[in-house]
Protein 1
Amino acid sequence: MQGGHYEAAHPHRCYEKCSLCDYWSYTGETTTMPGCIECSRPNKASFIGLQSSYEEGENVTFNWSATTNTTHYNLVIERENDDGSYRTIYRKNYAVSGESVSFGEGYYRASVQSYNSQCWEEDGSDWVHIISDYSNFQVNKPVYSPVITPISDDIVINESTHFIYGLPVGVAQGCVAVTDGTASYEYPTAKQAMGTGTVVNIYNNDNDLVDSYTIVVFGDVDGDSWYDGNDAYFVNLVTNGMISPDALTDAQRMAADCNHDGVIDTVDTGILEQAGLLLNDIDQTAPIEELQTDSVYLEYCGLIDQSIEPIEPDQPTQAEETPAAKTVLGWLKALFTVVLNWLLRIF
Ligand SMILES: [Ca+2]
Ligand SMILES: [Ca+2]
């Protein structure tokens, strides 16, 4: 039946039965054809070691297994369009296994065509060939680690303790610049000031949180970025034993030791009360350029050195208590801790 069909379609060709499969075929123009078209057709190739994802610009290597009846291979790579269709963006005829290509961000599929150029397809449109199954892969933009730098020489970012200090007191608007990422600030108070306890979150370009730092402004315990009598009040609670130092965060305890002698005590309270008096004469809304020429602001800043590495102060020593006093004091401390936390959230 096939013989009659082929003779009708291709009267100028000679036909014979395939010696391998008994299928009728034409002999074609070459003499090396082993049999009929299907017996001359290569096997499907398949890619070896192709990954499912690569980074932009990375070399993607296309290896494939050798196939029978094959004179050469063509490598075709298509990119997915927004509507889900594909367009060919790379084609290499007579490609060899091991071709390397790099791509931009996107979704791709690759196929390899195995050709037998010694015989033609039945309709004469092409050499006998077979196309491999598609192998899909995606190419992503590389995600770099964000690099953070302080926005001024006075600001120190400690990469081991993850504390940031040395900010201009009361007026800082930010503290870090980020390349290959972004920073956001979580403020400890509703004032949204760059005070003690402000958390600096660092995100990469994929918006994944990759790092967090905590700001310490020495003297500023309540986190409003200024140090004054309000902070003295909280330090007093600790030095008087009314609240446990544990009621403060690590950053708050470091901030409370404003003379950096490793102890939270009345010396610190005294400095803060003195600072509070000076602060009354400082325009807290003035821009930093103006404040830096204000002698009172400079005197205020001179009270507490912001350039010193934060250290965890010793726990203040507390007086011996009688059992009865312990119960009452314990209850009062608990109450103060609750009130303190409530105050810190409000202010
Ligand atoms: Ca404060
Ligand atoms: Ca101290």
Protein 2
Amino acid sequence: MADHFVRAGRTASSTSLAELHQLCANDYTSAASRRAQDHRDDAHLIADPRCPAALPTDPTPCPGPIAVLVLDARNAGAKGCEHHAARLLAVLPGGRPVALPDAPEGAALRTFTASGDIRRGEGQ
Ligand SMILES: [Zn+2]
């Protein structure tokens, strides 16, 4: 049976261990360009910089500040910019927008109207 352990004063006697070291070296070398480009395999775990109302399937950025709270039929809510709140509301059965205290005048109404346009295929 092959010796898979490196013992003090001895080099690895196993070809399997040498193969593992070679695989590690190859993997490190092959990932060099990805490291140079700051590629992160865990990029999906980094927090979305957009508002909480932005749907994962919607790649658009927030065009404005968080202004509206979108509540669903059970009163669970997500705060969002008017753009993403309208898109969320358009696909949320029984949802409604509520303007946040510091929202611009008419934010909830604009969100509600825009969600209706999106539902009818007339909005963005
Ligand atoms: Zn947004």
